[in-house]
Amino acid sequence: MITAGIDVGSQSTGVVIQKDGQILSFALCLTGIDPRKRAKESLKEALEKASLSPEKLDCRIATGYSRHQVEADRTVSEISAQAKGAAFLFPKARGLIDIGGQDTKVVLLSSGGKVVDFLMNDKCAAGTGRFLELMAQVLEISLTDFGKLVAQAQREVELSSTCAVFAQSELVGLIAQGKKKEDLSRAVCQAVVDQVANMVERIGLVPPVVFTGGVAKNQGVASLLEKRLGFSLLIPPEPQITAALGASLVL
Amino acid sequence: MKEKTQQNLVKFISFLSRRKSLFTLLGGYEWWLKKKWPSPDLAQTSYLLTIHSIRELYQRKKPVVWTSLFFPSEFIWAGSMVPFYPEIASGLVAALRWSDFPLRSSFQKWVSADLCSYHRLSLGMSLLKLFPRPDFLIATNTICQGTVGFFQTLAQLWRVPFYLIDVPFADFSASEKYISYQLESLAQNLSQEWGIRFRWEQVFSCSNQTRAVIKDIENLRKQKTIILAPPTKNLDYLPYYYQFMGTRASLSFFTQLLAQLSLTEPSSCHRLLWLHLKPFYPNPVPEWLEKNNLGVAFEEFASLYPGELSSREPFSSLARKILYSWQLTVGRKRISHVLQLVQEFEVQGVVQFNQWGCRQSQGMNFPLRQALRKQEIPFLELDGDQIDQNHRSDEQWKTRIQALAEMLEGNR
Ligand SMILES: Nc1ncnc2c1ncn2[C@@H]1O[C@H](COP(=O)(O)OP(=O)(O)O)[C@@H](O)[C@H]1O
Ligand code: SF4
């Protein structure tokens, strides 16, 4: 059976085409303001990469924030889709941390990869990818710089607010005080890590734990999170398509 | 509606609400409705009762007593007084999509936005003088301590006396006596100061009969295929469980509900236990539950005191009823009560709507979750506000509900 998983997130849209447990192709792009259109385009791209015509698809399963807005045969929540995708890539996984653009999810998995319990952040941007984006703007760095900068940080700096708006102005103040970009980058990543680690501890995740979502590409966050949790995390080669992969596997 | 227009409208309604004689006219309307609907259905019964209550509360022929949810209405009806539950009325205001204005009024008068919105809204409606004027207030400090401060503020706003019934949180054998003594003193006080005479017999008998009907409803709901639809609807009937207990209105309402429930089509949905209350403003949660094949088998707030009220020992039996609220407030009792409901109603999942700023609902989430996890029962928390729409987060609720359904589907 050939299926397509379509994950329409707040930031990125991912599509995975899968046949009997084999990934044939995937596509990834920014969601932008027209999720419907982006989902269509990504599906087309993924089908082309797999040299398949749309008729060959047995089922299209949508997930992600805008899952109800796109053309699909059925939908699945991001929680189940991420869990399925993570368990497929890492069958021994007992937990999952997903940090996306606007929400963070922590999922406790059974030995068979089923969802036992889950937690989502509340509706504010603290502890999410969006928070990192806003801080990167203030620091005038790109998201991919975080890893390098965090590795070079020397002095301990702490952000006192987790609210994105207050943290932005706090950061401006710290820059004015002459604090170094490296130290501030670590403070920003640490703020996210502390929030997420609290959620992990709350739900009681034990390793092996998979780390997915766009923020899993942020090496600054990944290394600090591993340090704070005291174990290493399993990061898929492309962490932004795990939900799409999981969706393609739900049938 | 434009702010100015709304303000003027509020002033006008507030002015009208103080013209007692105006509400006498509602008597005629009520009489006409009763003629029109000789055997009213559930919706018509509710409408008739609303009109009747508005008349009684604003006409003020009898003392109007504001009280808290866990103070038994039977005490008030037995003294021929009219109870008004501001927390219940707040839900009604929200259901009418009119919570913004009173919430804003309370904010303007320095009421913190972090306070429970049931209290904020009631304070706003009091500041606007839209809720019916109380003669005095009676409250218990269960199920939430916030009630005490709330009623103290109300007493100052309306300049009326406030009688507090202190409910100990520890399971002392003297607890019942302690509450019974307070109730008796209160009754004496009300007799002396307000000339109130208590006639327990009829009200208690009606309450006991109603409880028996509710028990039958519960027994029916314990059957695996019986689901009261749409999901969470039963929480709209809370006034009948609380405010009108001890009156014919509750008795006839539940008798009709029982009849209606006996005729429902069998359902094969996943059964949930619902903890705490729900958003009362129009919202899509019930629809999403239904779409995801989830039904509410029972609600924590529909758990009634199982004992009888006795006119031979009115104060002790009422004290026992008040103490039953421990099932909601004392951690150990609440958790074992929830586990018992899970078993009795054969539910597969538990949902709690975490009300913003409410310690009662969220204080014991951790041990509750642990206890449910041990039994492999998923526990879903929906965060938001049941009255104030500013704290709603529909997309998050939608995802969480769908994820719960998928978990249950996987566990089937
Ligand atoms: N190359 C990258 N390096 C570091 N962070 C990244 C990178 N790409 C994306 N991100 C982070 O990932 C977030 C988006 O995550 P994603 O999982 O795509 O979100 P969603 O599921 O909500 O669409 C961004 O807010 C950003 O912080
Ligand atoms: S919702 Fe919670 S805080 Fe508000 S009145 Fe009820 S118990 Fe008290």
Give the structure's gist in a few sentences.
The complex is a heterodimer of chains A (251) and B (412). Chain A is built from eight helices and nine strands. By secondary structure, chain A is an alpha/beta fold.
Which stretches of chain A are low in confidence, meaning pLDDT under 50 for 5 or more residues running? none
Give the CATH topology of the largest domain in chain A. Nucleotidyltransferase, domain 5
Number of strands of chain B: 8
Calculate the terminal CA-CA distance of chain A, rounded to whole Å: 10 Å
Number of helices of chain B: 19
Q: What is the total domain count of chain A? A: 2
Mean pLDDT of chain B: 93
| Radius of gyration of chain A, taken over Cα atoms and rounded to an integer in Å | 18 Å
Which CATH-level-2 architecture of the largest domain in chain A? 2-Layer Sandwich
Quaternary state reads: heterodimer
Instruction: Tell me, briefly, the overall form of chain B.
Output: globular
Distance between the termini of chain B: 49 Å
β-strand amount of chain A: 15-25%
Count of individual helical segments of chain A: 8
Using the CA coordinates, give the radius of gyration of chain B: 21 Å
